[in-house]
Write a structure and sequence with these properties.
By secondary structure, the protein is of the alpha/beta class. The protein has 5 helices and 6 strands.
Length: 114
């Protein structure tokens, strides 16, 4: 099975400061999202992803998907890849890795995907 694309928290932080061709998508539950999100992240609960395949297939940008530890985001990337959607990248280590790197969190998401 082909490997999913992954990015480390430090690489993502560096790329976000240099350019803006990534979209950040938090797939945690709303209760988890209330604890903080990556800057400029959008939210979409993991269980809704199969209903939003068009969102992913029509996006011109790379979408970095993250959760708390990277497990759920890896599952979602694998699922999307199986649907022929290849513009998705999992944040390795998730929010835990991002926070342990000392990177900023926002109190609220930018928006939800509806």
């Amino acid at each position: 099975m082909p490997r999913i694309k992954e990015i480390s928290a430090s690489d993502l932080h560096r790329l976000l400061s240099e350019q803006d061709h990534f979209e950040l998508l938090d797939i945690r539950t709303s209760a988890e999202v209330e604890r903080g999100v990556l800057p400029n992240a959008k939210t979409l609960a993991m269980h809704l992803i199969p209903l939003k395949l068009n969102y992913f297939s029509e996006s011109p940008r790379q979408i970095v998907i993250y959760c708390r530890t990277g497990s759920r985001s890896a599952q979602v990337c694998r699922f999307l890849n199986q649907q022929g959607i290849n513009n998705v990248i999992s944040l390795r280590g998730g929010l835990v890795q991002w926070a342990s790197g000392g990177y900023r969190l926002d109190p609220q998401p930018q928006s939800a995907i509806d």
